[in-house]
Structure prediction request, 393 residues.
Amino acid sequence: MKLNERSVAHYATCDSPTDHAGFLRKRVERHHHHAHHHHATSYQRRWFVLKGNLLFYFEERESREPMGLVVLEGCTVELCEAAEEFAFAIRFDDAGARAYVLVADGQAAMEAWVKAISRASFDYMRLVVRELEKQLEEACKSLAACRNSPRRSSSSGRKRHLSNPALQPLQEKPTVLENGYSTWGSGGGVSGGATCPDRDGGHAKPPPLPPRRRSAAGSAAMSPAMPESPVSPDTACFSKLHSWYGQEIVVLRREWQERQKRGHP
Amino acid sequence: MRYNERELLSLARQPAEKAAEILMRLPKKGSVLKKRLVKLVVNFLFYFRTDEAEPIGALLLEHCRIAKEEENVFSISFIEEPERKYCFECDSEEQCREWIEALKRASYEFMRRSLIFYRNEIQKMTGK
Prediction:
């Protein structure tokens, strides 16, 4: 089966957030040709980098390209004391599949790795995001209820701000338009539960929200954004916001370019 | 680069976020559109010859660009090689739009940004 390996290797080495990194000793898997031979288990020290649900390993820390990749989706990770001290194993459902046995430098390192890997699935991340999405909705609702003005969400001020291009300074535009291209918030590692670098001082505006999957506006979520304003408190529809912001940016950019042409600063 | 192909093949058999028969063209010169079963599972897009159990290939959807091309057509390209495009011709504009939306949301990086955003918003709103 083909894989877009060049792109995957590029992703491994680019500056997108790394969830965890460090040296681990990796058990070398050998083919046992002769059953009666006693093979000593050997380990190779490699530099490991965890990004999302992908665990890359490099021959050396400075290596420009990964040696290998372990796709972690659906894995379980467990301690593996029998092998070596500070050893843990990554296993998959498939009974016949080999396990990856890795050895950390110490107790703390081992625990950190086990924790990071056990949270590394896309599914888990999706759950967390959905949960937060719900929390945000509830926070919005209770705030709106408090203010007794159901038409205005608490963040309508920000949204109104965005919807008037004249008010928005250009450096606030998010660079996010495309999948993974953003430089927003990705400077430096963001570890699995850490707070983000807070760029909210009037600069990076929030990126689009993820879509509601089974909301009342479910079908609407899949249709393209007519450029309706995201001011509506019901717009938690991510793809709409995403498209709307995208169009907003296009308009802003065009206006800016026109101003440049006319010689205005 | 080595990778655990077995697990990737197993992933390809999981329930998909989205799946459809779509005409697909590889970025190779002289490639033609071929009917493929295209299946989105987590941040991978698998493509199969129709009626085959094992995918011909997989695309990791990180640092990629999903773009609308001409009518009914969208493309996937990767940040380091933006001219190399995987093209997909859908049956309708609507199907095309749905796939574009789904693929844009299908990266771990996208979810990470959403997480950060939500946390921020909640914090601003509730002070927690």
